[in-house]
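Team,

Forwarding the record for the chain on the shared tracking sheet. I've put the sequence and predicted structure together so nobody has to dig through attachments.
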Amino acid sequence: MGRGEGSGGNSRGRRESFGNVRQLPSGRYQARYTHPRTKATVKAPTTFTGITAARAWLRREAVRLESEAAGAPVAAARSKVTLAEYGTKWLERRDHRPTTRRTYAGLWRTIDADLGRRRLSDITPADVSEWHSTLHPGRPTARAHTYALLRSIYGTALRERLVSENPCTVEGAGIARRDREIAIVSPAQIADLEASMPPRFAAMVTLAAWCGLRFGEIVELRRGDVDLDGGTVSVVRSATRAAGGMVVGPPKTKAGRRVVAIPPHVVPKIRAHIESHVAEGRDAMLFPLSPGGATHLDHGSSFGYPWRKARAAAGLPDLRFHDLRHTALTMAAQAGATTAELARRAGHSSLAAVAIYQHAAAERDRELAARLSVMAGGAGSA
């Protein structure tokens, strides 16, 4: 079987023994090859965070094509399993976190209702394209996530030789376009939010806005996770809401398990919070539902009501708590953090995932430059 196409003009393209891998501007990797019979360019149904995964996909494709060329039977031609049957089992086999499982269940209900009765091997790229064109009108994020789930299901079916191709070929359909701008607040606004929160919750704003911790990571923090002398907070667990209440598990990703340096000006605030609001013992929760308790705080009325009051008082009525994490990482980018440093601080497994904060920092820098010109007034034209 011949070698695949070259880099296509991209100097970062890498010619493999079969096919081609290139790094995209986003930092992710795209794998592709020239089909030996049709001569069409075939791209992987998804991009990859690392070159190793991209090369593994090419190897699997090479083996599949060689098997087909040798006359190996394709199970898809005889398969009568429906998408509903296969998709349901696909979800059951996944070891997802509770929040992810709930999200996927909601997305799957849409797929099942629209396509579930059809045989897995009968659905064509044209069918998926038509389905996608009417999917969740006015809800781009939901549309992208639903499509991405179907593509993942078919990706597994292809590897298991239940189908001969992945029919999810709509270009860019699995990428969620952000339907609202990330809100970045100023240090003065952070202080206003802290002052407007109940005293026992004020440090939650501090940890989110200056250390970039997620809500679930914050509410699971214990006294022993904070090293005030060393100026660090260790993120080793996270709490997520499930049907039976809050469930404690590892952080969102493997990279989420991390040690975050606390800015020096924040350490006294965390110290004061621990001294005033946290029970004794290494396992004492920093932010329990009730003072001194052992029940996790969630987004319910105990936190949600004072949070809404605080953001309204600070003149930020639409601010989401997660925007404070965005603020922390954008400020870190403005302070000169490299992509790798941002990824470590954020707990992201992908370097591409932190590019948005660098972009936001660059935008704010341009705004600053524009304001400087306004301050200069007509001095430059005199």
